[in-house]
Each structure stands twice: as C-alpha cells, then as structure tokens.
Amino acid sequence: MKAIVTGYSSGIGKAISDILESNGFEIIKLKARLNDLDSLEKEVKLLLKTSDINVLVNCAGLGVFKPHEEISLSKIKEVIDVNLTAPIIISNLLLRSLKKTKGHIINIASVEATRHSKFSALYTATKSGLRSFGLALFEELRRSDVKVTTVNPDLTKTNFFDDFNF
Questions:
Q1: For residue 149, which of 17, 33, 87, 134 sits 20 to 30 Å off, Cα-Cα?
Q2: Domains of the chain
Q3: Secondary structure element (H or E) that encloses residue 166, with its range
Q4: What is the pLDDT of residues 100-145, one digit of tens each?
Q5: Quick check: 13 pLDDT over 70?
Q6: What are 32-41's contacts with CB under 8 Å, separation 24+?
Q7: Confidence at 64, pLDDT banded by 50, 70, 90
Q8: What count of other Cβ atoms lies within 10 Å of the Cβ of residue 38?
C-alpha cells in the first residue's frame, strides 16, 4: 500500500509517516515544492502512471503569525499555496486512484480553523479553507468508498512554533 504525506520531513507529518511505514505503507515523497503548482501537478500525474495511492495526508503547513499588514505579498501567496491550494490540487489529482483503492484522504488543518486568534488571520483563513474543503469533500464522497477525515490539532510538540513570539 502506498501513501503520500505532505510535510513528511518533520513534525506531525513525520510522525504520521513513521506510523504509516510501521504499518506497511510505502511513503511516496513528492519532490516538487508545494507552492510550485505546475511541477506538483506534473509529478503527481507521472506518479499515477505507475502507482495507485491508498492514503493521502495533506499535512504540510506554513504559518506566519504577525500583524497582517507586515506580511509580504509573496509570503501570503506561499502560505495560501502550501496550506490550501496544494491540498486541493493533490486531492483532485488523486481522487480517481483513491476511488480505485477505496482510499482515505486525511487533512491536517488546525484548531485555528475553528477559532480566531490575534496575528493569525492568514493562517486561520488557509486552515479554515482546508477544513471546509475536507468537510464538503466528505459530503461529496460519502456514498463512495473514499474516506475523508479532517483533524484540527492544537499546539503540538514540534518545531513549527520555534520562531514565533507567543
């Protein structure tokens, strides 16, 4: 069985990858940067020519927690691409394969998708979007064999928050 886990190199994504591997899954490590959407699309389409995927974990996350007017436009685009656009695109590209394998999409959103905190407008918008995408996709696929789960973790013991001033 094969799984794609975005954000597999650290934090929650690494923990999920380790658990999947210990349960016999081969982790497919995407080489394209998640904010390089053209390369990402090409890589996933090429992969699907030789493999079917059983599990997709949309776990990669990028956070910027400061006054919104202080965030550069390029950083805004990068956060949206990594946290929201890439999961939507990867899910789209993998759905036929996941239907074949009766697979599972797991979205790792954030507790910030369910509340509103100071200096988190951008992050909250992207993770709320991912949460809503997952809930709507669940409804779309509820009569299919593809499962969709969205998880909203709170602060976790990872390096994600190392550079933030809370």
A1: 33
A2: 2-152 (3.40.50.720)
A3: none
A4: 999 999 999 999 999 988 999 999 999 999 999 999 999 999 999 9
A5: yes
A6: 34/6, 34/60, 34/81, 34/82, 34/86, 35/77, 35/78, 35/81, 35/82, 35/86, 37/81, 37/85, 37/86, 37/89, 40/86, 40/89, 40/90, 41/89, 41/93
A7: very high
A8: 8
